[in-house]
Each structure stands twice: as structure tokens, then as C-alpha cells.
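hey
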């Protein structure tokens, strides 16, 4: 009569089969590990894999202080009659599309001013690898809250219907502004936490506290500002931002409220570094933000924290 082995059979044949299966599984795991190691070895550097938004060559102090970056740029005018929610403006953008899409920044002028007052920032930032939109506001006397809304309307136009929309990564956006446009920059950051960077330039706003802001913010003030004195504007703006936020305060030495209205190397240098670090997630630019810059000929004071690693 044929005997049936119990479920706990320990016959030599079954033991040999179990050892064979174990060896097969072991070989498979080892082969998978070896394959993974080979793939890892063949992949580009870890930074490139973690930083798909990196644009342009490795930066140097000279490259971020230069009047132009590595990208050739073009520009296009946007009529106020063709848009809603803001007053039109000028878009500056890298002409090359070989690197993929770029982050974008919208910049607002200040009280009674036009886009021409901040136009120098357009080609300077665009040549570093951004799409930049310097805008006019609906009226030159619009207040900061309105300017904040207009910055966001301009971003929505830029990414939604503009002629350069296919060049832009709509998840990587920032805002800047001068004077009331700087106050509007804080308003925009408060209203849209998904923004990646905000830079108010000698900002003015009756609201002094911004604990709601979740966007990495570089506040730039001027030691000689009598219109928006740092003691009653830029400093309280900065101090009120959450301590957990990536934030910095740069006070320009020998500067006035209107210093941001003309080409300025210090403003450009740290704005580029901030936008690159937080819009492009490009840690190559951390060297210009950490350790914190020291006071000197053009900087009266610099406060902040080193950028948090994600």
C-alpha cells in the first residue's frame, strides 16, 4: 500500500528540494542586487538625479555678479488690452529650449511707477535661466493688496495663455516687487503658498506682520530709505516671518528707497542665488547664502538662516 507522507515530511528528497529552492531564491536576490548596483553606477551623479531643475553651468561669484548670465534672451511685449487682472508688461526669456522648461518670476513696480523702473531685472534674471515678466499695474496708485493680486494674475497668464507658456514649469514660480510692489510680493506669497520664492525690494505695506507666509522669502531693505524705512517696514516684515521658514534679510549700505530702480550688483547677486536655490532647487547656489554674507561695502546687515535641505 502506498504511504502518504505527513505535511511535516522531512524526507531527504524534500530536504534537497527545499535547499534547491533556497539557492534559487538566493541567486535571484543576489542577481537583483548586482543589477541594481550596476544601474546605480551607470546613472548620472546623485545631484543631477535629485535636481532635475538645475539650469546653466556651475555658478561662481563672477557669474552671479555679471550683467548677463549664460543664456541668450529674447523679449516680447504684452499689451494691457490683451490681458485681465493686471496692466500688461514685458516677458524676457531664454531663447534656447534644449534644457527643457524654466522657472518663472513676475516683478511689480512701485507706487506711481511703471515697469520701466524695474526693467533692468528682466534680461539680467532671464539670462540666468528664468522666464521673467515685468508688469505694469492697472493704475500706478494701486495699493499693495491689489498689486499682490496682479502679480498672481500675471503668473496665471504667463503659465496659462502667454506665447511662452510651453517654456515654463508652472510648479516653479516666484514673485518680486519694488516698494508697494514689494508689499504686494508679500501679499501674493500669503495668498498662494505654492510659490517657491518671494523677494520684496525696499517693500512698503501698512501690514507689518506676515506669519502666514510659507514661501522662502528674501527681504531687501536700504539703510537710507526714508519712504519705507527698514525699522518700520523691511525689518518687521522679516521678523514676523515664521522662524521655521527659509528666510533672509539683506540691508543695502549707502542705498535709498529707489536703489532697486537701477542696475545693482548686490541686489542681482543675492536675488539670483535665492531664485536659483528655491525655484530651481539648485543647491550649487547655497554657497552664496550660507555661511551668511558678511557686512561690507555694499551690505549694511545680513540676517537669516541657512537654506533647509529637503
Amino acid at each position: 500500500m502506498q504511504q502518504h507522507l505527513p505535511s511535516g515530511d522531512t524526507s531527504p528528497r524534500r530536504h534537497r528540494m527545499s535547499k534547491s529552492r533556497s539557492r534559487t531564491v538566493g541567486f535571484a536576490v543576489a542577481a537583483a542586487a548586482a543589477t541594481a548596483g550596476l544601474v546605480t553606477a551607470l546613472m548620472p551623479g546623485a545631484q543631477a538625479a535629485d535636481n532635475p531643475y538645475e539650469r546653466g553651468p556651475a555658478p561662481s561669484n563672477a557669474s552671479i555678479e555679471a550683467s548677463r548670465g549664460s543664456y541668450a534672451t529674447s523679449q516680447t511685449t504684452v499689451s494691457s488690452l490683451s490681458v485681465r487682472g493686471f496692466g500688461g508688461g514685458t516677458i524676457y526669456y531664454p531663447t534656447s529650449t534644449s534644457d527643457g522648461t524654466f522657472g518663472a518670476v513676475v516683478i511689480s513696480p512701485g507706487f506711481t511707477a511703471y515697469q520701466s523702473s524695474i526693467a533692468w531685472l528682466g534680461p539680467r534674471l532671464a539670462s540666468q535661466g528664468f522666464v521673467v515678466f515685468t508688469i505694469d499695474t492697472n493704475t500706478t496708485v494701486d495699493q499693495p493688496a491689489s498689486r499682490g493680486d496682479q502679480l498672481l494674475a500675471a503668473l496665471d497668464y504667463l503659465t496659462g495663455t502667454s506665447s511662452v507658456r510651453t517654456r515654463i514649469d508652472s510648479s516653479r514660480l516666484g514673485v518680486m516687487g519694488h516698494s508697494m510692489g514689494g508689499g504686494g510680493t508679500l501679499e501674493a506669497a500669503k495668498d498662494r503658498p505654492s510659490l517657491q520664492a518671494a523677494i520684496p525690494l525696499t517693500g512698503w505695506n501698512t501690514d507689518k506682520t506676515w506669519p502666514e507666509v510659507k514661501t522662502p522669502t528674501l527681504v531687501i531693505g536700504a539703510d537710507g530709505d526714508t519712504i519705507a524705512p527698514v525699522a518700520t517696514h523691511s525689518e518687521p516684515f522679516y521678523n514676523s516671518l515664521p522662524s521655521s521658514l527659509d528666510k533672509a534679510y539683506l540691508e543695502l549700505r549707502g542705498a535709498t528707497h529707489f536703489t532697486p530702480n537701477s542696475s545693482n550688483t548686490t541686489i542681482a547677486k543675492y536675488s539670483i542665488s535665492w531664485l536659483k536655490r528655491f525655484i530651481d532647487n539648485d543647491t550649487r547656489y547655497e554657497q552664496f547664502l550660507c555661511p551668511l554674507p558678511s557686512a561690507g561695502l555694499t551690505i549694511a546687515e545680513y540676517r537669516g538662516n541657512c537654506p533647509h535641505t529637503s
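Strands lie at 73-78, 89-94, 102-108, 130-135, 168-178, 197-201, 217-222, 247-252, 299-304. Helices lie at 12-42, 46-50, 61-65, 121-126, 144-160, 180-191, 234-240, 265-279.
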